[in-house]
Amino acid sequence: MSSKVESWFGCEVKAGEAVSTELVISESYSSRDVAIPIRVRRGLESGPTVFVTAALHGDELNGTGAIRSMLSDDSWELRSGTLLMVPVLNVLGFERHSRYLPDRRDLNRCFPGNSTGSMASRLAKVIFDSIVPRCDFGIDLHTAAVRRTNFPNARADLDNDACRNLAETFGSGIILHGKGPKGSFRRSATDAGCPTIVVEGGEVWKVESAVAECMLRGVFNVLKMLKMMDGEPDIPNRQAVIRETKWIRAERGGFMSMHVAAGDSVVKGQAIASNSNLLTEDQNRLESPFSGIVLGMTTLPAVQPGEPVVYIGRLANPKSAQRHDENVANDDIQRTALEHLATNVQVTEPDESEPDVSSD
């Protein structure tokens, strides 16, 4: 049994305890503290320290919903280690229903931060130095940007064995390879020796129960893998690994008719969207340039030339599309997410009489 008392953000946390505390990150115009609420939970035994964060972009709330479900649920127990749960990391953006900080900077491009830099750099420095060096692993929960939605997917540097293990164990069903943008929280944390993954799902300004449930299962999967919780991870039989992605963009202005939903598989040459004028005339069609999975898409049907419409991840083998469909069909949480996200846009069958105009 771990008897050592740990000090977190000015509070002492004993083995087996859960303590609500806060991390002061800055001051307001009225010189009052700006603080991030944090729940620190410890198991009875020694073990890894893991952070789970959400709303690093202040309007991305599905992860917030998932963490709040963990906080309000007394049915699960932490057997070992220490878990930091941060429902809202970017409190200044959250209070303004904004992705960004008040100075319009993206906090997720400012890590590991600078104590003498801009507001964003200073906030990033405090957050990073207070959390990352003391943690062994991290999970950062996100959604798509405004006017877009994403099918739940994990993003990790698959060349890092620890990150790969986290992403595979999370069990979202889709894994995207990449280190992350320069200055991002997960890239900076991983570079500092704390393997961290990002999980994307759903859209901004809401908590979508199907997406939050996927995130919740994934966090518990990781904790079980690390032996911080009892039980075995609930991981889909197959997971698609994506190493190449592409946004399919509108070629002409008009009103889009979508032929796919986030989470659908597509084959090369398949119609994914059509657009026309407001009287449904002068139609043209966008096609998938390769076989893959629809990772995300716009939820705004009106477009101008060059605007992103559908985000597709390439599959190395066209047969993988069928395996992805079978995997989703056999996994209750993924299937529910697919059904839910399909209601965010109007999905119709393509008109085969339309002129065949590809996006390439």
Automatic annotation (TrEMBL):
InterPro entries assigned: AstE_AspA_cat (IPR055438), N-alpha-Ac-DABA-like (IPR043795), N-alpha-Ac-DABA_deacetylase (IPR053138)
Domain (Succinylglutamate desuccinylase/Aspartoacylase catalytic) ranges: 47-225
Molecular function terms from GO: hydrolase activity, acting on carbon-nitrogen (but not peptide) bonds, in linear amides; hydrolase activity, acting on ester bonds; metal ion binding
Top-rank lineage group of the source organism: Bacteria
Keywords carried by this UniProt record: Hydrolase, Metal-binding, Zinc
Cofactor(s) the protein needs: Zn(2+)
PANTHER family hit by this protein: BLL3975 PROTEIN
Name of the protein in question: Aspartoacylase
Organism: Rubripirellula reticaptiva
Lineage: Bacteria, Pseudomonadati, Planctomycetota, Planctomycetia, Pirellulales
